[in-house]
Amino acid sequence: MATSTRRPVIAGNWKMHLTVAESVSLAAEIQNRCARFRDVDVIVAPTALAVYAVAKRLADGPVAVAAQHCHGADSGAFTGEISPPLIAAAGARYGIVGHSERRQLFGETDAGVAGKARALFDHGLTPIICVGESLAERDAGQTLVVVERQVKAALEPFAATEVPRLILAYEPIWAIGTGRTATPAQAQDVHGAVRALVARLAGPEAAAALRIQYGGSVKPDNIRALMEQPDIDGALVGGASLTADSFARIVARGEEP
Ligand code: 13P
Fold first, then answer.
1. How many domains does the chain have?
2. What per-residue confidence (pLDDT) applies to 4?
3. What is the per-residue pLDDT for 2?
4. 101 domain residue, yes or no
5. What is the DSSP pairing of strand 126-131 with strand 167-170?
6. Residue 185: which domain range?
7. Collapsing DSSP states into helix, strand and coil, what is residue 246?
8. Percentage of the chain surpassing pLDDT 70?
9. Please, what sign has the CA dihedral across residues 7, 176, 152, 121?
10. Which of 8, 23, 197, 206 has the CB geometry, 3.0–4.6 Å to 40, for a possible disulfide?
11. 71 an active-site residue?
12. R_g over Cα of the chain
């Protein structure tokens, strides 16, 4: 395990999978399997349609709910969108912003992501802010340039004292859904650089408190080595969060789930 005092945080991003009924049932199974792990924050992110029903089913805790996406405004004529106050009222406590699929497929920008993170925060939700480079950017030696630009933009609207209450997720795009995980050392290199950047931007205390998740082909058999890295504080899990068994084994981080 990482030696820091930061509380691990493991989130399952269900993306565009599962009906409302399937989501509630998976959430209940995860709650059942994960309730005994009290040293970790566990989060599930169902589709927007299922956020309310899943949050209701999980009201007893300890598993919390995240939205996968939001608009930056509180309300308005934005057909198809959902806003932070609506997400909070539906029972979620977290919101994912800036996922690479949103950036790549739906044109989300660094500034837009920052505005959404701020809006979530202002409504009492914890933003999980995703950053990460493409394969072409990594091959061109641009990984830290890209990730640092994304992190800098995302933290722009936040005071140093607020930074510890955010979560960053480093998800190299080439590792998402490909089965090709970053090695623990590759991930640690970026996590360490991000924490050093946060120290420059918001001070060493904020940097020491901020939790940074890794995402990209996290599985039960690689979570332990990832979590052993000093700057990896958790995981944002896609495919392996879609069954209670594999997700519970990730939450267990090498112990018997
Ligand atoms: P996979 O775990 O399926 O690679 O997805 C990672 C991800 O995008 C989580 O947000």
1. 1
2. 77
3. 47
4. yes
5. parallel
6. 9-251
7. helix
8. 98
9. negative
10. 8
11. no
12. 17
1 occurs within a structural domain: no
Q: Are 71 and 81 in contact (CB under 8 A)?
A: yes
What is the bridge-based pairing of β-strands 64-67 and 41-45?
Answer: parallel
Helix, strand, coil % in the chain, rounded to nearest 5: 45, 15, 40
pLDDT, tens digit, for every residue of 228-254? 999 999 999 999 999 999 999 999 998
pTM of the model: 0.97
Write down how long the chain is. Answer: 257
What pLDDT is attached to residue 3?
Answer: 54
Within-domain flag for 240: yes
Bridge partners of 214, per DSSP, are 170, 235
For ligand 1, residues with CB inside 6 Å are 13, 99, 171, 176-177, 215-218, 236-240
User: Considering the domain boundaries, does residue 223 fall inside one?
Assistant: yes
User: In CATH, what number is assigned to the domain containing residue 121?
Assistant: 3.20.20.70
Ligand 1: centre distance to CA 146 (Å): 19
